[in-house]
Amino acid sequence: MIRSELIQKLSDENPHLYQRDVEKIVNTVFEEIIGAMARGDRVELRGFGAFSVKKRDARVGRNPRTGESVDVDEKHVPFFKTGKLLRDRLNEE
Known about the structure:
Blueprint: H1 3-13, H2 19-38, E1 43-45, E2 49-56, E3 59-62, E4 69-72, E5 75-82, H3 84-90
Antiparallel strand pairs: 1-2, 2-5, 3-4
Helix pairs in contact: 1-2
């Protein structure tokens, strides 16, 4: 599901809300999650999962075409860990 599909589904399920208001709500939620992660905070949505930021140290990598050594800088990457409820629903039989 992409953002526009989420907005459309929420609008359809809540006919008392304008679509532009639903779009503002969805965008605000995503911006807050992004902002918190940019600050290095952890964001937990109970039953769904937790977003956090992991640090990858600098290292020496290889260029796959030439085999030449390349310095790879330290970087921060997003990490998502699923919640128990989501895992259980995905693995239902």
